[in-house]
Amino acid sequence: MIDISPLTEYDGDIAAAMGKLRQQLSARHDGSPIEREKIEELIESPYHDILLAVNEKDEIVGMAIMSIVMATLDRNAYLEDLVVDSNCRGQGVGGQMLEAIKEWGRQKGCRRLEFTSSSREKKEGAAGFYESHGAELRDTNCFRVEL
């Protein structure tokens, strides 16, 4: 049984677990705990949430950072940093998280869920996962400017 819900208050143990998960998502992160200020800023914002997947042993086995992106005509949910612990992959946790993410967006009045993923060559498993759960690969350019 997996419980997926928003984080509502800072906890050092949770910050440490999030740091370990973040390291599994990106080699650029060293596995250290996520900074308290960053977690509290996300918790306090009405436009963001940290969703945590917790198993029956009270272990954090997945996380996602959610944001609302406002536009002139509607609002969209934006998914950032979805990761499931490598020891739990293939057990349905990711699918449960994705359903919880969609429900989060619906509850926030969002029209669609948008996200990016690394190229298919870098993360074949991620692309296949998203496609198997109904995500449509868009023909678009993704730009970034460092500030």
Order of helices and strands: EHHEEEHEH
Give the C-alpha Rg: 15 Å
Which structural class is indicated by helix and strand composition?
alpha+beta
Q: What is the straight-line distance between the termini?
A: 42 Å
Low-confidence stretches: none
Strand content: 15-25%
Strand order of the largest sheet: 1-2-3-4-5
Largest beta-sheet characterization: 5 strands, mixed
Keywords:
single chain, 147 residues, alpha+beta
How do the strands and helices of this protein lay out in sequence?
Blueprint: E1 3-6, H1 12-25, H2 36-44, E2 48-54, E3 60-70, E4 75-84, H3 93-107, E5 113-114, H4 124-132
Parallel strand pairs: 4-5
Antiparallel strand pairs: 1-2, 2-3, 3-4
Quick structural gist:
The chain has 147 residues and is of the alpha+beta class. 32% of the residues lie in helices and 23% in strands. The longest helix has 15 residues, at 93-107.
